Amino acid sequence: MNRLILLLAMALLTSARVCCQVVGTVVDGESETPLPGVALYWKGTTEGVLSDNNGRFEIKRHHMSHQLVVQMAGYAGDTIIVHSDTTLALRLQAVSKRLHRVAIRRRRPMTFNRITSVEQTEVITTEGLRGLACCNLGESFENSATVDVGYSDAVSGSKQIQLLGLAGIYSQMLLENVPFISGLSAPFGLGYVPGQWMESISVSKGVATVKNGNDAITGTINLEYFKPDKDDRLSINLYENSDLKSELTARLNHRFNEHLATGLLLYGTYNAQRSDHIGHDGFSDYPLQQQLNVVNRWRYDNGKGFVSQSLVNYIHENRLGGDMRFERSMRGSDSIYGFGGTTDRLYLFTKNGFMLSSTASFGSQVAASWFRQDAYYGMSDYRGEEKDLYVNLLVNAEVSGGHIVDYGLSFRYSDVRESLSYYPYIGFVGQNMFGDGDNFDYREITPGLFGQYTFRYGDRFNATLGVRYDYSVPPAANRNHVMYAHYAADDFRCHALSPRLHFRWNVWHDWILRGSAGRGFRTPNLIAENLGILASGRRIVLTEWIGREEAWNSGLNLSKHIKLGNGREANISVDFYHTRFVNQAIVDLDVAADEVDIYNLDGKSYSNVLQADFSIEPFEGFSATLAGKINDVMCTYHGVLMRKPYTSFWKGLLVMSYHTRFDKWRFDLTTQLNGPQRLPLNKGTLQGETSPYVYMLGQITRKFKHFELYAGVENITGYVQEHPVVGHDAPFSQAFDASIIYAPLMGRLFYVGIRLSVL
Amino acid sequence: MKRILIVLLLVVGSCTTAFAQNKKNTKTAEISIPAYCCKGLNATIENTLAYERGVVEWTLHQDKKSVTVVYKEGKTTPEKIEKALAANGVRTANEKPNPRAIEKLPKCCQPAARGEASCGKM
């Protein structure tokens, strides 16, 4: 009872405090986003206020005037008669055509935002990318505890990511919400995205919504390139490091008129020198590499709600590694070990969207890619070619009460041709394994349909429930490998039903709880995804047809955005994700030191990942992020439940950044603490668990009026793997293994660069 | 180590004296920003002036819609400063802003910078 009185008294007090006041919010009538800076004043007086960043305002009532004028440039003004203290919810409609266009353009990302805000998403922005020497996507996750990056072997220099303790192949790589890197291009894919092209990277953990296919099990990485209508006319970045690797990135943009814009993105890299600082084993630390990468993109916006975006990307890459004495002409040599690879990739997408009505929009996404790779590891030859077509049609509609419905159709066609002549060592006899020119060609046609419903209860709660169904047309005729002969066409038939649930709940005082759960599927590409094994003397044993992989993922995340007063902010986030495989292509390196068995999962395979992040801006210009992660990833290998190899048991991260006023100087320092990993059975002297190590990188940036200079150090502590190539003195014997990689392969590395842009 | 410290001190010392000397021949100009609409524009104005050669200090007057700039004579002129502001999207009394730069301004400042509409009574 006392409490009730107290509450009543408080209510009275608060109402007394706001006496003679009008409060409220102003939002855009179209997108419902809050409008800051809206002028509100009493007609005929000089008493007025501006709405704040959240579109909120408070204005004292005036004894002379009861007419509240609402004004905002580009919006239709309004006058409201107010006779009492009240709360107003004002919606302003855009008037000028130009702003109307903006309103619609903002609508599309808003829809994505609403959905992605349901997912736990970490965004790496341009600012974040600037503090890193990110040559490419593989080097852009240093400041994130969510994504782990490692090398796949000691000769190819290709990097692979892990999300939730599982290989990157279980996540989906999107370019502006369109599938980008998948299938055969996955192993080297991180090298195909220059860091300076990216405006932002968003990493969403857990299963994705149903809109982009069913293969995002552990998460989605969405890349946004710079947009031709927004970006500067010309931007150039030049980079040079102490290993004589040079890079040039350029972005050119042109706007023909207010509707049409085009952009040209160029990237070239070249390293002229091989070095052997690590292990002194006669093997070069990093392959010679040349890459040319070009994007041309177009954007058309008719100003009436029709937006069309198209992009073409061509990549040509050459790599040459292995023995320091090895030259390109020595391909196939059985005395000097060499690695070489040539890759060509053509990718294009076109996205078109228009408004069906004021609350519904239609979007189409069409992406096509052609990929060809020709690589060799010692005496083994690998060729891969992939043609891929992806069509996705989707409708987004707002139904009554702000709830949203999305539905659509998708179609995917993949034509994969892989062949491998595998000779891991001299005297190798192929028996029921990859032999002379074994090919694994297949064609897969996957039509699918999906729908999802987003329920919203104000800002407090929203949930998205979606389901998609995909059907793979039996590709039996194409699975022409002799091994598949005794399988019936039905064995290849795939019905895949993927339910997905996401929710976001503002539990209490901006403590936000997010959750997700769902099932995902993917078709494994056995050779392409395990290319690193080719850099070893292991026999590959494949005794059964490997089915499509299937897994369930669920997770919870609790986060809070804390305002510390005087404009300072802090963020706290804790999450736990669980992934459980129903079927998985198991790559068993523990069966014997000179063998790798590939088979379907028989037993348990799961991953539990607990991560905590805390970031704070304690004073002007300084920010720090502290994060920790525990990976518990287990898998059944030949009947024994074991830790998955090459997965850190834990990881710690400290990111510090300081900039002086107006960003004139900027200092970035990242420290990673990488926990122990389990090594698989191998021929080397190092077995079992590796020891933890520290990896640090730092950069100083100085900004001038028209350009900025940066200089930095990668791997400051210089920790490297001592002997990355096991059996380097006998590379054509069973004792050779260059695939046991757990630590950096590059020592301390200095770099300098310059960035300039013309608005 | 000591030697490095002494050298550093000398460098810092000479810099500060250089700054002190230059302060003598400074001039003050008031630059009018008629399209000033909201506080969002302050960051753009300040960022421009911070990187402008010869600008020593400045004071923003939101009520008067102007900025008072103290600059070194011979290194820059009020005209040059106005041009620099316009290049970053800020409309001044004599200079029209760069249309591409306008789009990087906060939403509330864009229409006025384009010269489309005034900000009303506020």
Task: Explain the overall architecture.
The complex is a heterodimer of chains A (759) and B (122). With 759 residues, chain A is mainly beta. Chain A has 2 domains: 2-95, Immunoglobulin-like; 108-758, Beta Barrel (Maltoporin, Chain A), CATH 2.40.170.20. Chain A has 4 helices and 42 strands. In chain A, the strands form 6 sheets. Chain A has a 22-stranded antiparallel beta barrel. In chain A, a hairpin with a 3-residue loop joins strand 16 and strand 17 (245-255). The longest helix of chain A has 22 residues, at 97-118. Chain B is of the alpha+beta class. Chain B has a single domain (25-114), classed as 2-Layer Sandwich (Alpha-Beta Plaits). Chain B has a 3-stranded antiparallel beta sheet with strand order 1-3-2, with helices on one face. The longest helix of chain B is centred in the N-terminal third of the chain and has 21 residues, at 2-22. Chain B is globular and about 40 Å long. The relative contact order of chain B is 0.17. Mean pLDDT of chain B is 79; it is low at 7-21. The A-B interface holds A 36-37, 39, 41, 46, 48, 50, 69, 71-74, 77, 96, 98-99, 230, 232-233, 255, 661-664, 703-705, 759 and B 37-38, 40, 46-47, 50-53, 87-88, 98, 100-101, 103, 106-108, 110-112, 116-122.
How would you summarize this macromolecular structure in one to three sentences?
With 759 residues, chain A is mainly beta. Helices cover 6% and strands 53% of the residues of chain A. Chain A has two domains: 2-95, Carboxypeptidase-like, regulatory domain (Immunoglobulin-like, Sandwich); 108-758, TonB-dependent receptor, beta-barrel domain (Maltoporin, Chain A, Beta Barrel).
C-alpha end-to-end distance of chain B: 59 Å
Multimeric state: heterodimer
> Which secondary-structure class do the elements of chain B indicate?
alpha+beta
CATH homologous superfamily heading of the largest domain in chain A: TonB-dependent receptor, beta-barrel domain
**Within the largest sheet of chain B, what's the order of strands?**
1-3-2
Number of helices of chain B: 5
Q: Main beta sheet of chain B, described?
A: 3 strands, antiparallel
Q: Can you tell me the CATH class of chain B? A: Alpha Beta
Percent of residues in beta strands of chain B: 15-25%
Give helix % range of chain B.
Answer: 40-55%
Count of the domains of chain B: 1
Largest sheet features of chain A: 22 strands, antiparallel, barrel
Number of domains of chain A: 2
Radius of gyration of chain A, whole Å: 28 Å
Q: Which fold name corresponds to the CATH topology of the largest domain in chain A? A: Maltoporin, Chain A
Tell me the radius of gyration of chain B: 18 Å
**What's the average pLDDT of chain A?**
84
Based on helices, strands and strand pairing, what is the structural class of chain A?
mainly beta
